[in-house]
Automatic annotation (TrEMBL):
Coiled-coil residues: 336-440
Keyword Protease: no
Protein family: Belongs to the SLA2 family.
Region (Disordered): 840-859
Gene3D superfamilies tied to this protein: 1.20.5.1700, 1.25.40.90, 6.10.250.920, I/LWEQ domain
Native species: Amphiprion ocellaris
Major site of localization recorded for this protein: cytoplasm
InterPro entries: ANTH_dom, ENTH, ENTH_VHS, HIP1_clath-bd, I/LWEQ_dom_sf, ILWEQ_dom, Sla2_fam
A Pfam family annotated for this UniProt entry: HIP1_clath_bdg
Cited PANTHER family: HUNTINGTIN INTERACTING PROTEIN 1, HUNTINGTIN-INTERACTING PROTEIN 1
Role, per record: Component of clathrin-coated pits and vesicles, that may link the endocytic machinery to the actin cytoskeleton. Binds 3-phosphoinositides (via ENTH domain). May act through the ENTH domain to promote cell survival by stabilizing receptor tyrosine kinases following ligand-induced endocytosis.
Protein name stated in the entry: Huntingtin-interacting protein 1-related protein
Any one GO MF annotation of this record: protein homodimerization activity
Amino acid sequence: MQTSGFEMPPRCFINKAINTQEVAVKEKHARNILLLSMCKGAHTFWAAVNRLPLSSNAVLCWKFCHVFHKLLRDGHPNVIKDSMRNKADLTDMSRMWGHLSEGYGKLCSIYLKLLITKMEFHIKNPRFPGNLQMSNRQLDEAGENDVNNFFQLTVEMFDYLECELNLFLGVFSSLDMSRSVSVTAAGQCRLAPLIQVILDCSHLYDYTVKLLFKLHSCLPADTLQGHRDRFQEQFKKLKSLFYRSSNLQYFKRLIQIPQLPENPPNFLRASALSEHISPVVVIPAESSSPESEHVVETDDLVDTDIPALPTKFDDLFGTSAAIDPFNFNSQNGMRKDDKDRLIEQLTREIQALKEELESFRLESGRLCQALRGRVSELEAELAEQSHLRLQAVGESEFLKAELDDLRRVREDTEKEQRSLTEIERKAQANEQRYTKLKEKYTELVQSHADLLRKNAEVTRQMTVARAAQDEVEAVRKEMQEKVKAAHEAADRQVRGRYTLLSLPNMYFFIVVSLCAGVSELVRVVTQCGHLVGDTIVQGSATSHMVPVEQADGKSLCGAEALALLGRMKQQDSLAAADDGKLKAALEKLRPRGLELQQGELGDLVEQEMAATSAAVESAAARIEEMLNKSRAVDTGIKMEVNERILASCTELMQAIKELILSSKDLQRDIVESGRGAATMKEFYAKNSRWTEGLISASKAVGWGATVMVDAADLVVQGKGKFEELMVCSHEIAASTAQLVAASKVKADKDSSNLQRLQQASRGVTQATAAVVASTKSGKSQIEETDTMDFSSMTLTQIKRQEMDAQVLVLELETRLQKERERLGELRKKHYELAGVAEGWGEEEEGEHEEAQSHCNQYI
């Protein structure tokens, strides 16, 4: 009677396949285990495997891995799910075998890691079957048309393929490839599992190529650089392993291994996908199996098919022909007792086989009953699953709609987040710029306050000086009127012979009159007495308003005059009178202040103009030196900024030179057209207030050029502040306007030199504006290189700082506006006072303010 192979206990199938003999697992034993899994899943398999000493025998564990790998690939789909409960045991076993550095122990550790990775991959991606055979449509469905899913799936395939390649390399490195290891039983035991590895690798390579082309069509190439590098590495390994495997005799009879192309696909060229050829592994029809070449094992003496028993019996003991050992009439050298014993032995074996057969039949009946119950359970489960599937379809549609809504919300959130991040970055940058501006503004306010205090002190002193000057002027006028009246009276008394201009001249006249002769003594003495008395009275009033030295001189002069009259009274003639002391006193009182003022102002104008020219020349030379030094030391953005700033400063120096030359020419025209018969020094002295304004403006221009060069030097060295350079440019523009205004006061409006001066002034204004613009641009360019780090801050912290920054910005903007209005009023008052003091007109003040405004628009 013929029976099915299932009538043998399942443990027998598993024990036949997984044993300690170092030979390859027989295909028929593995096939029986696969058929068993189709009915019972993996529970029966694991029930038998858990009794095996896998942790103590490396060959036994190696053959278990081979059978389990084949079961995962070709067994029932539930095998993977049923086997996950043993994942922890497999992990511990892999770790235990990993402590061995060679032999089957090391290979078992690698193989177990591969099997764990395979189970995890299929549990996470249930659309992939165990044998990895999928169509292109199924591959697209596995990613659910989401580029993020395809990206992650590619990474998982890389990890999967990496484990396969590690086992491939591990087996090859454990074999002596210089010998024909593939024809030995031990070599085939190690090589046999690579058939499953080759099948897995061919599919993983094909799917990886297709997914990478899909990703490159959706994502930038830079994002996928890591994927391409990893694929290149695995491609080289897989190509080499396929080539080495195809040359082994063992694989040539069992599997046709594909060859990969010479070069990997070019994923940056979309058309290269059409050139990709999926590698196909061909397993030829089973004509002869490798186990037919091995020695027949002991457990093969009892096969699962009863009809095979007679055939194997004849093979072992001969046929029932004339040479039959049971033919007692034949003379084969066997005694009767031996034959009886042999018969008894065979009878016992037949009885044992019958008992085992009966046991197999009972086990088969039990298994069939169990299978029928399992079929009923599966049918009920199938009905339930069908119902659940219908529910799942409905829920899936609902979840897809929800997913679409969530994706739209996520996209909106990401856009808002990007916008918020950009706003926060700009707010932080503005805050930093504002902080720097606040610091500079504080310095400017402090400096402005100091200047205001100094200005107030100067104004107070000027007020006091002007009051004193007005008082002196009034007294001087009163004295002049009195002296004039005295002169007129004296003229009338001396018959109009002398016009006396001042008290010292009157003293001089007295001496001359006294020395004229005795004949006039009576007439002169009367006149002298009257004039001396008037001189003493007027000198007493005048002495309170002049320096002490001059007051003492006038007193001495009066005393000498009285002494001279006394001596004249005692002598017979004027010749005996000694008038030397009186002459010396009169000579000291001769007015020399006007000549001294003329010399000082005239020289001072020339000196200040020359000093200003020298300061500008020195500043230009320093700028050129700084520019050459910066080109030799600095690089990149810093060199670019320094060159731009120093170049604008050089242009400003050239414009100031032209302004000074034009101012000199215009002053020459003013002096020549207005001095008349007076000398140039007398003209400057006569117009002292105008001259002082001209000197002050010239000093301001030279000082501004020097200070600006100092500020530029510090900025180039990285020690100064850009704002200082802007303020210096601002002051140069103001000083230039002051010089032009001082020069225009007495100039002819049609003068060509005046037009030239105005043109030079505009050139200076434009040059200062260029300095301010280049400084501001360089400052922004330097500040833009600074980065802000928000990585350690949470969203709440960033939002809180943003609100604080907004409040602070509003407060500071309000305060800045008020300070600007206050500064404008101060400047207006300063221009008003400066214009009055230096003789400006409305037109000159307007030009001054226009120069300031033109420079301010760049700050």
